[in-house]
Every structure is written in C-alpha cells, then in structure tokens.
Amino acid sequence: MNALLTDLLRQFSLERLDVNLFRGESRYTGSPQVFGGQVLGQALMAAHSTIDDGREVHSLHAYFLRRGDFDKPIVYSVDRSRDGGSFSARRVMAIQNGEQIFIASASFQTPEKGLEYQAAAPQVPPPEELQPFAKPTGAVLEKLPEKLRRWLEIERPFEFRPVQAYNPLMPVACEPVRQIWMRAVDKLPDDPILHRCLLAYISDYWLLDTTTMPHGSSFLRGNLIMASIDHAIWFHRPARVDEWLLYSLDSPSSSGARGFARGSFYTRDGVLAASTAQEGLIRLV
Is the pLDDT reported for residue 56 higher than 90? Predict the structure, then answer.
C-alpha cells in the first residue's frame, strides 16, 4: 500500500485507553493546526468503537472549538447517550492540554429498508478526462510565503481532479459552484466503518473554500483568515473512498464574516452517498 495511505490508516487505529476513552495521533498537513477532517474522522471512529450491534452511522454534527496541535495526541471521550430499539446516540469530546478542542454528536441506526429517493448527480466529465489538481511550478513556489509554500508542497493520500479550472493563487470572482472528483491513492481494506470515517475525513477538503469564490479570494492569497466553525455530514448509502467520488459543492450565503457551504458525494455510477454542510470564518485581513 502507498506509504501515505498506510500512515493515514495508522491515525485511524485509535488506542483504547478505557471503555469510552481513546487516543489518536495527528499529522502535519501543511497548515499550522490539525486538519479538521482528521478530527472528524477520528471522532467518528471513536464513537463507532462503542457501537456493538452493527448499527451504522447516519449523521454526524460537530463544532470546532480550538485549534488542534499536530505535535500532540488527541484524546477522545465518548458518552453513550442512548441505545434505543433501532437508534443509538453518541457524544464525543476531543481534548488536548486539558481543553476541549472539538465536540460532536453522532447517530447510528440498525439497517432497515424504507422509501428510496435521491437527487440526480450533476452531469460532468469523468475523472479520466480531467487533469489532477496542479501544484505551482518551482519558480512560483519560491515567491510564495513559507506557510503557503508548505501547504502546497506537501503530498496527500488522496488525489483530486477538479471539473472547473481553478487557480487558488489567482482566483477570479465566479459563481460558488464546483465539482471535484477524489479518491484515495491506493486500495483500502474492505471495512465499511473505515470508509465512512475516511469519507468524513475527505469531506473537509474544498468545502469552506467554496464560500470564497464569489469574492475572488482564497486563503492562499494571504488576505483571508479562514477556520471551520461547524461541520455536518449525513451518510445515505455505502461508498468506498478508494473509488472515484464526485464532490459537488455550492455556497448559498456569506455574511457576518462567515461563509456557508453544502456538498454532495456521488459514486461513479451516480449514487448519492452522503451530504455535507459547513459554516466557517472567512475574515478579511
């Protein structure tokens, strides 16, 4: 397996400290704080670890309270709020240095059949007809501030193929709608819980950045302070993150130095696998 992906899986092998207490490792991803998707995914893995009867997560709602330090482990405390006839609820608190950095609620359901409907997937070119997200050339990188250069240079365990041309260093004001194909760079184990947790992980890519599109700005320009405030994800149907997924994104509003974005994950054959929503800080410097 690809070394980057192997290391990512290591982050999702949480250490169990007690019945409802877990510890996870963090990694540097080019930004000064822990990647929000990592905390989302690890918190969901911790909650899943307290579900014993095969119930599957269908929703996760989270708030980011403080920046996480990637040089230190994160402790996840799970509260078993309720186990009902077909639903279970869990609350997760992520702690570093004795302080809460993140809180989340997750709901799990015993699989059952019911009414079926989904919105159609957008009509876009397949990933094979698109170019991977291009990093700037060496000459351009040398002119960038160090923190931006580090973010662009780091290798990631996922590949991205945007449908619309996009240059974060030279953004142009446009309609806040985009689609991006994404998948893991290598084959993953056949573990549906792992794939749900990694779907939560990748759901934090590109989402808040969509809110900057109408303003012709980007955090890589250095004129915006951006930070996730909350994040929600609803799991509708099974999906594998080592197969191409289309992330369809839009942003209906920005106000009060906050931007709001929505997303939908579709499988290669057009099945709606998950929906996301996020509000975050987009403060002009």
Answer: yes
